[in-house]
Amino acid sequence: MQYITSAFKMCLSTLTQSIVSRKRLILALAALFSVSAAISLPVVADHCRQHVYQKWAEGWLAWKNDDPEAALEVWSDIGISANFSARPSRIEYWKIRAMEKLGREEEACLLKTKLAKRYPFDFYTFLIFSDGGAGSLGDACRSKAESLFYPNPWKKEVSAAAARTGVSESMILSVMRQESKFRKNAVSRSGAQGLMQIMPTTAKDESRSLKMETTGSDIKDPGNNILLGASYFARLSRIFSGELPRAIAAYNAGMMPVTRWNTLYADDWVEWIEEIPYPETREYVRSVLENHEMYKMLSGEKSGPPISVLMSEGPMPVEKLASVPGHKKSDM
Q1: With the CA atoms of 77, 78, 81 and 84 taken in that order, what torsion angle do they form, in degrees rounded to the nearest 10?
Q2: pTM, 2 dp
């Protein structure tokens, strides 16, 4: 009986060691897989982004050469790689435009529904749906998204700046959200400061225009900073005769580059935005316009045309802007 017990214990010990060894092996394999994934994922993501960039450029060239069929074929070949790009919605939107140009309305309608469901409140979704695709979301989900991502801080200061400069509260909030994410002490690498990310030289110019007495330390004060930023935006809007995409682009890239870009040979404003040669400014314009639509929708503001007008109107040559009395395509 003793021998049987000893043999049983030995078997149990061997079995236990085997189980422990297998567990260790599984854990080791899992750890190895995790490390491999962590190393390889950035490589895969970069490869996908390169694939999207190449296909987008190829399709865009076809579109500009008035060949929507070739453009659609190339853009449709992007597949899931689009998810690794900054705005996957862009590919879907331009596929819709190509389908409509080819008379494939039914396919375009299906893709519009998909766009609204997958990318609600996106710049490209707003171009097609005035509510940004909110109709595809439940009330609770929509309300939570709005309150989390589109706050309305500094109400007193924003209202005062809007009243003094003529720039709408929704536009001030839209620029502020993109510039500083509402951080009053934000300072950029280039030296832009505060909620509206104003450069000290710009602050001096606007202070002089507003007859304000400000010092360097006053620039970050929320009330001053918002007013100076709104005043600068109002000046840019006047320079570009109310053409909102140009004014927004100039706030980010400066007035001279935007003037130099002129029409960028674009047939409409959406094409113009796609042709902006500075990637940061291109995304900045999309984001501010997207923010603007959200804040207008949240506040119930009815002023100005819907963002969809960007598809039907195009940029006027810069040299003609000053000679057109009352020319105003957008509303601040």
Answers
A1: -170
A2: 0.84
